[in-house]
Amino acid sequence: MRYLTVSLRPTDGEGFHPLGKRLTAEASIQREAIHHVELIDDGTMLMLAEGSGDRERYEDIMASSSFVHEYMVSGEERWMAVSRFDPTEPVRRVMEWRRQADVVVETPILFRADGSQRITVIGDEAAFKDMYQEAMSLDSFAFEVVETGEYDPNTERFTRSLTPRQQEVLAAAVDVGYYRAPREATHEDVAAAVGLAPSTVGDHLRKIEERVFETIVQ
């Protein structure tokens, strides 16, 4: 079994979805990751996503969007949101292809600052070839292979499970000496390095550490 990590970037200026474009453009909101997404039988999409920042602004955008049928949010500074919405035609095509393809999409799917998504799929060379041909036929997306290799869930899962913001916080914590013995930095020092509140840094580090321990014991 092999893995293929790709970067998908919108090429038409509308993002993967007009709703996604609005959320990405909102400076008070950080879109962190997609934990589950599927096309359901009524033709709408169901998504479980992770975000941080101004939850009220997120809810304002969702409530005012003509694409959104329903949504629910749980959490404060960092929150999980379930939503059901209408896909665009290119997105619908991708999701219908995914239903039939012999690949497994690894989650979470991470959001990047430029609006692209980094996606890792698991399958064989034949499935990857079919996926590449399908991607090349879509004018709305730019498709770039990031890396590929033999799939080892034990060694790859941890780094792929971190959001870009968590990777940034972890790198800063290591750089300033937060994990040295004896400890040479505090949450405040890490926060100053990344421009976040100390409480937010503490939340990120706890989630990172939780994922480290989960990886070790599983």
From TrEMBL:
The keyword Metal-binding does not apply. Residues 162-214 form the HTH bat-type domain. It comes from the Archaea. The keyword Transcription regulation applies. Keywords: Transcription, Transcription regulation. InterPro entries: HTH_bacterioopsin, HVO_0513_N, WH-like_DNA-bd_sf. Residues 17-151 form the HVO-0513-like N-terminal domain. This is Helix-turn-helix domain-containing protein.
